[in-house]
Amino acid sequence: MLWDAGLGGAAHARARRRAVLVGASRSPTPSPPLPLIPPPSTPPNQPTQGPLAVRRRTPPVIRAAYSPSAGGSGGGSSGGGALTAAAASKVRSIAFANFWLQLPLTVVSASILIFALMFTNPQAQDISRVFTFAGIIFAFASTWAARRMLDAARRASAGEGAPLEPARLLAKLVGNTNLNLLGLGATLLGLQASVGTLVSKTMLSAANAPYAQPQPGATLVSLDVFSLQASTNTLLAHFLSIVCANLMIKAVAKAQAA
Known about the structure:
With 258 residues, this protein is mainly alpha-helical. It has helices at 2-25, 85-118, 128-158, 166-207, 222-257.
């Protein structure tokens, strides 16, 4: 009987050990995931309704202002739009006066200078007429620019061509004024040289004996005095062109201010 009891206890121990091994080999059942709790929309201890409710602040949206002059519809103009018909008509009137004041003065100056060069001894030529000729060339260039401005203003005032843009018009006026300043400088240099030449010829003529043989270029003739008229006409043409340019700039500024 003792043998049977020992055998039974050993069998019972083996059965318990087998049950423990089988239970350990099985995978445990996974636990269900925890539910996600959304964060509170408002801080704790803060009311969501009523006069003391916390309101959400949305960031401000910054929008760029559209400007026709900066966009493609403005035609690349930075002058604040085209001139009106009234302003274009005023510019046309000033450009008309500018052209017809410069043209006769410049043509007369060129005619006088050419006449003086043709009927003067080649040995008596001086550097003063070269400067005067340069001033006349600048006067012709300014006259041509005034003519182009007159045509553009005439088409704009009639509504036939492109409108006058203040930025381009001011750029043309500044360029025309620069031409006038260059012409003024060259003509003034020529005038100074002409006056010096006339003074020297007068002094040499007074120093010579009455019956002495005059030296070429040392005798004062009427063409020397007449050539001064070319310098004064050229100076007047450039001066009037600068005055007209200032009047047109004033008209454009008044139109933009309005």
